[in-house]
Each structure stands twice: as structure tokens, then as C-alpha cells.
Design brief:
The radius of gyration is 23 Å and the shape is globular. With 407 residues, the protein is an alpha/beta fold. The strands form three sheets. The protein has a six-stranded mixed beta sheet. Strands 2-3-4-1-5 form a five-stranded parallel beta sheet, sandwiched between helices. Strands 6-8-7 form a three-stranded antiparallel beta sheet. It has helices at residues 4-20, 50-61, 84-92, 111-120, 132-142, 157-164, 170-179, 183-188, 191-210, 215-226, 235-241, 247-259, 273-278, 288-294, 302-317, 356-370, 398-401, and strands at 39-43, 66-70, 99-103, 124-129, 147-151, 232-233, 263-266, 281-285, 320-326, 329-337, 340-347, 374-379, 384-388, 391-397. Residues 204-349 form the DUF4143 domain.
Length: 407
């Protein structure tokens, strides 16, 4: 429980800090529309820039008709649902306030009930959170049809280059593959920032939130996943590798890691959802810079770092992504919309005489399977075109394909 005076002081202090904050504008900013009667919900991993994006939304409105409150601060650790009544009193004392911005609001149990109530009172509401599961579950029960959801990720390659005023070329791409895209780390370059972030992700977002008792097993799982980026994994295989007795526990830990945006489990394409569930999934990790902190030896595995970067560039633009594996042929990414395949993409650090047949055959098999006449191989820095049986394969450099736009 809190006192009204304490809450008022926090609001005043956070508003002052908001005014002082200057930041790089995210591309997502231009895509966001705030609609009456709808809550805008922005989710994403910690330190990806959600608070900064809120600041930019406030600046875009260019008026004082708002109230901002970041719940993820020690001063509000004792904030409970009943304290929303105090917040209501403070809002009523500010009749000019029309829009409410709530950062990391999911730390308050029952927050969605309050948000629904203030929407009904005519306020515009923007909320952020760092856990996809909590947000989706609570929004689904209390705010069905009353919210618009957006996801924010660390800097894309284009944003990385724009932020550092770098040319979009192979040299800047190699830097991006090592440093990753967390804004604060890119700005200051201190590895301790990533170490602190990793601890927060594991302990605050998973261990504490879900009451995990076997922290060491969770760490072993994370280390295994980071060392196997782009590889297929299953719960049974993971159970053996990290020495856990229960497959259910492995699945639980995987779910927590995925919902905190730390990893993504890419399913195999199948027109049967049941088949998607029973087949192994490919692992991708949120950020190459954070990978380097966890397993420095991974630094030299440039092919997988490139594949990981391609996945997250695609994930920013598409929700429906799969891998292909049929006829003993593999293709890295199948991009779909409404479950209809749009693009088939292979990733290769450098095409050469030893690997071109394998990469080409996997891509062509996927193209034939989906009846597509064009496919893509994304490389570090190669450009080419291949024609086979009336089908076209475009070989394109990563920095050229993803050097536009941003998050």
C-alpha cells in the first residue's frame, strides 16, 4: 500500500526525467496510431526501448494533457491494486489530463481491470510490458476487442546504422553481428550493461515471477540454447542435455524464456497444427551481443550469427514464420501470411563450391513444395542470380536487403 503523497512525488519526478530524456526515434513510431476507446499495448524484451518509445509518443502529441507512470521502479514496489484509487484521485485533480501512459504495468496484479475502467471513462491509454504471456492472457480476458498490440525489439540493422551514423555496408554489418542491437549498450559500449540485463531477464522476469526453484537448471538450459542457435531441439533432447527429470519442466522453462522474448522457438511448416506441435523446433536468441556475453566462443560462429540476425529482421515484419524440412531437404525460413507461403529464404554466410548445391537444393525443394517461382539466399556480401527449371533464385547481401527501414 502507498500514500497519496508518495505517489504524487513519483509522478512529478518521473515527469521531470521524461522531459530531460533525448533519444533516437524508432521507426515504429510512424506506424503507431492511437485510437479512441482502444488501449495501445507495446510489449518487448527489457531494455529494447519501450520507455523511450513512450517518451516519443508523448513528444509527438506536443501538449501537457498526459500522465506518465513507470511501475518498474523501487518507489512503486509496494503499489497494489487498491492504490489505483489514489491514482484516480490524482488524475481527477488534473482535469487537463486526457492520455495515460503506463510503463511496465504488468507488475501490478489486476492492472487490466483498471485499464478497462479508465477506457470506459474516455481516457486514451498506452501501456507497456516485458512479458508477452502476461499481457496476452490478461488482455484476452478483460480487454478483448479494446486494445491494439505492438511489439518492440532491439535495434534492427538499419536502426543500428542510423543511430551510429554508419554506412549500411558489410563492415557495419559485421559490427552489428558482434554488438547486437540493445540501444543503451550501443550508446555506451559497456559489457556490464548486457550482464546486468541478462541477470534482470533471468531473475526478475522468470525466477522471481514464476517462483523457479532450480535456477541452475534454467541457466543450463539457456546456455544450451545459446550454443545451438539455428539447430533443432525437442523437449526430450533438452531434458537429457540439462539433466532434468521432467519433460513438463523443460517445456515450462522454454515457455518462460520465450514469453520474456529471450528466445523464439520456430516451428516446422505444416498444414496440420498437430504436426507443428510434435516436430522439433529451431532456436533463435534475441540478440547477438547478448549471446557474446553468455558464450564468448560463439563469436566466431558467424554463419549462425547471420542466420539469427535474419530471423529477427523477419520477425519484426511477420508473425507467421516457419522452417521447412521435407524429402531430407531443408530451408531456413518460410514466410507466411494467413498461413499462405509468401517467401522462401535460405541463409548462408558465403556461397562456395562446397555448399551451393546443398543450399540451392533445399531452397528449390521448398519452392516446388509451395509452388513458388522465386526464392532467396541471403549472404554476407554476395549478389547473384540462379535460374533452374524456370525458377529464379536471388542471391542477396544481408546489408542490402535489410538496410532500409527499421523496427
Amino acid at each position: 500500500m502507498m500514500r497519496k503523497s508518495e505517489l504524487s512525488e513519483v509522478i512529478a519526478y518521473q515527469r521531470e526525467q521524461l522531459i530531460l530524456q533525448k533519444s533516437y526515434p524508432r521507426k515504429m513510431l510512424s506506424d503507431i496510431k492511437m485510437l479512441p476507446d482502444f488501449a495501445l499495448v507495446i510489449s518487448g524484451i527489457r531494455r529494447s526501448g519501450k520507455s523511450t518509445l513512450l517518451t516519443q509518443l508523448i513528444e509527438r502529441k506536443a501538449n501537457n494533457e498526459f500522465l506518465f507512470l513507470n511501475f518498474d521502479t523501487p518507489q512503486l514496489f509496494n503499489f497494489e491494486f487498491d492504490d489505483f484509487a489514489l491514482l484516480d484521485e490524482l488524475i481527477s485533480e488534473r482535469p487537463e489530463v486526457k492520455t495515460l501512459y503506463f510503463d511496465e504495468i504488468q507488475v501490478v496484479k489486476g492492472w487490466e481491470v483498471y485499464v478497462r475502467g479508465i477506457l470506459d471513462r474516455g481516457f486514451q491509454v498506452v501501456v507497456t510490458g516485458s512479458n508477452a504471456s502476461l499481457l496476452s492472457r490478461e488482455l484476452g480476458t478483460k480487454l478483448t476487442g479494446r486494445h491494439i498490440s505492438k511489439e518492440l525489439f532491439p535495434f534492427s540493422f538499419a536502426e543500428f546504422c542510423n543511430f551510429l551514423n554508419k554506412e549500411k555496408n558489410v563492415s557495419s554489418l559485421k559490427e552489428y553481428l558482434q554488438q547486437g542491437g540493445f540501444p543503451q549498450y550501443i550508446q555506451l559500449g559497456e559489457d556490464e550493461i548486457l550482464n546486468t540485463l541478462l541477470n534482470d531477464l533471468l531473475y526478475r522476469d522468470i525466477v522471481v515471477r514464476y517462483g523457479i526453484r532450480d535456477e541452475r537448471a534454467l541457466k543450463r538450459l539457456l546456455l544450451f540454447l545459446v550454443a545451438n542457435i539455428g539447430n533443432l531441439v525437442s523437449a526430450n533432447k533438452l531434458k537429457q542435455s540439462i539433466e532434468l527429470k521432467s519433460t513438463a519442466t523443460v517445456l515450462e522453462y522454454l515457455s518462460h524464456l520465450e514469453q520474456a522474448y529471450i528466445v523464439h522457438l520456430l516451428p516446422k511448416f505444416s498444414y496440420s497444427y498437430k504436426n507443428q506441435l510434435v516436430n522439433p523446433r529451431k532456436i533463435y536468441f534475441i540478440d547477438n551481443g547478448l549471446q557474446r556475453i553468455i558464450t564468448p566462443s560463439f563469436t566466431q560462429d558467424l554463419g549462425r550469427k547471420l542466420e539469427n540476425a535474419v530471423f529477427w529482421e523477419l520477425r519484426r515484419a511477420y508473425k507467421e514464420l516457419y522452417y521447412y524440412n521435407e524429402n531430407n531437404k531443408e530451408c531456413d525460413f518460410i514466410v507466411c501470411k494467413n498461413h499462405e507461403p509468401l517467401k522462401v529464404i535460405q541463409v548462408c554466410w558465403q556461397l562456395n563450391s562446397e555448399n551451393i548445391r546443398r543450399e540451392q537444393d533445399g531452397l528449390l525443394d521448398a519452392m516446388n513444395y509451395f509452388k513458388l517461382n522465386q526464392g532467396y539466399i541471403i549472404t554476407l556480401d554476395q549478389s547473384d542470380k540462379i535460374r533452374v527449371d524456370g525458377k529464379t533464385i536471388e542471391v542477396l547481401p544481408f546489408w542490402e536487403v535489410f538496410g532500409y527501414g527499421g523496427n
